[in-house]
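User: Second chain of the day. Same drill as before.
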Amino acid sequence: MSADARPASPTRRVAGAVVFVVAAAVTIAIPLVQPMPAYSLNLLMQASTYAIAVFGLTIVLGYTGQINLAQAAFFGLGAYSVALGTTTLALPFWVALALGIVLAAVAGAALGLTTLRLGGHYLAMVTISFQTILSLVLTNWIAVTRGPDGISGIKRPAVFGYSFDGSGAYLALCIASLWLVGFLVWRLGRSRLGRRMQAVRDNELAAGVVGVDTYRTKVAAFTLSAVLGGFGGGLFAGGFRYISPDQFSFAESVVFLTMALLGGVRSPFGTALGTALLILLPEWLRFLKVVYLAVYGAAVILIMVFMPEGVWGFVAALVRRVRGPSMETAVPVPVLPLTKETAQGDGTVLLSVRGISKHFGGLKAVDAVDLEVRRNGVHALIGPNGSGKSTLLNVLSGLYVSSGGEIALAGATIGALPPHERAARGLGRTFQNIRLFTAMSVLDNVVVGAERPGNLIDGGHGAHALALAALGFVGLADRAHRAVGSLSYGHQRRVEIARALAGNPTLLLLDEPGAGLNHAEKEELVTLLTRLKGHGLTILIIDHDMNLVEKVADHITVLNFGRRIADGAPGEVLRHPDVIAAYLGQVNARAAA
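Assistant: Same format as last time:
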């Protein structure tokens, strides 16, 4: 569900399904019953097969936020597989198409596995290089690809004796494939994998600590994008019956990217619209004769400048403004199953930290710190700015690799695990600077947390029900379907806590949860933390507000210059001379007196 989405009623879902089926049936039937000029058939064939390939960019760029400038290469792999398979190898069309899809998938997965840890402009450079290499191979490996002369005489398929050799029938097949793939990509965006992709796109760091395997998710997106590129390319080869290397150059990858951005890359409807506009708009403007290309270019530039989310994104935003925000209230499940532990502290150690260190060159941000967090309590970690508190939390959650020491959670060593695996062991956290998935709804933000690996949902409740329960616990169930960016700062803090709670953590790490909150919001936070403690959740909290810390903490550890200088009950720690000198200053010295 997108950030602006509302829960569809059964009536709306049925109506939408009927419209979809009718539109698909009509568009598929038209080329079968209505004769068309060959030029029109070719134009529509190009639009439909290109759109299938551009759907791949919806997945990799729109959903996952990863740049791919090699989509024409995957398109070419599918096309050449069908071309060579049906001519040189005399394979049936469907077998050749399947081989093309597999070849594109393998190439996409291999490229993703070796490059997706880079990201950003490095990833763009690698995909451009792959695209260039493939273009050179197609042009120069004449013995196999037939070089610049290309391949002609490509065969079309037959199904149960029905031949798609006619252009009208083949166009109907391409349009049917377009509708099917578009529906599957749309459904992917609303699936568990789709939500993980969008979480990676919006905030990769936060996605990892709530249990998303960010690397595997990006590789899956890249592979699916390549699959759709190969599928579209195979259909393209069968449609035109002739291909050559220049049809799959880097310039075509740029065209694919422009199509996606023009229509709206985050929606398959948008990418299909962008493809249609870029292919059909020049034909609609031909009546302008000499200047039609200039008008066409100007139109594309104006759309990109004034509609940064694409045509579909602009229309969707306009509809949202007209309809207004959703006021629907979501009803959570009655009980929030935070943990299976009892609400009474039993004194056993849940988190054990021994000699943990983190060095940045010669700077010892955390220096041989020992720490024990006991079950069912609130343990506060305090210290002056730069004392190493947030660094220690980043080491505990796996964002930083420790320079030494051991970390054990519930008796199991977790120091070598990546963030998503620590989340699967029951470690949840929030951030000092709020890290939400800004393009998703409040509910979907929390659902991502509920879907962490290993989360056992009590009573058979699904992830959505558990997410609603967490939102209800923090008092935001009535805002579940709002865009998360529309909430106040204090409410966004609560959403981040709810996202962590929905994962049923064994230990919750809170990094400056009171930062940026006013007095009333801090009092609400104290009440919330007290309720969490009453439910038996173990919490390790960092905060500079000593009033808040004294109200919620059972135990306090103090850091200064990366080392532990005090540890114990709040009363004795806050009056320790070293703590007063290092952190609390004269204000608390007077309070101690």
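The first helix runs from residue 10 to 33.

User: Great, on to the next one.
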